Fold this sequence. Notes:
Layout: H1 9-38, H2 43-62, E1 66-69, E2 78-81, E3 93-94
Antiparallel strand pairs: 1-2, 2-3
Helix pairs in contact: 1-2
Amino acid sequence: METMTTHSPRQLTRLFWVHDELRRIAKTIHTLDENACNYGLTPRQETRQANLMKRAGVLASELGLQAYHQGDPRGCSLYLVENMQDDDYTQGVAITF
Length: 97
C-alpha cells in the first residue's frame, strides 16, 4: 500500500512550475523532431535541441528522474524515467502538451 506524500504550498508551486516548463520543452522538442524528419535540422536547431534536453535533464533530476528524448515525431518526444536501462523508456511518464 502506497502512502500519500504531503507537500507544502511552496513545494506544490515548484512542482507545478517544473511540470509546466517540461511541458513547454516537450512541445518545442516535438516541433524540432518534426522539422528533423521533414527537412533536417540546421546547426542552430541542433544546438537548441541539445540545450533543451540539458534543461529537461536538470528539471528531471530535481524530481529524482531522468529525461529521455524519443526522436520519432509520431509520438511523445520527452519522457521521464526512474531508472534508464537499455533505452527502455516505456516504463516512463510521457510529457504531453
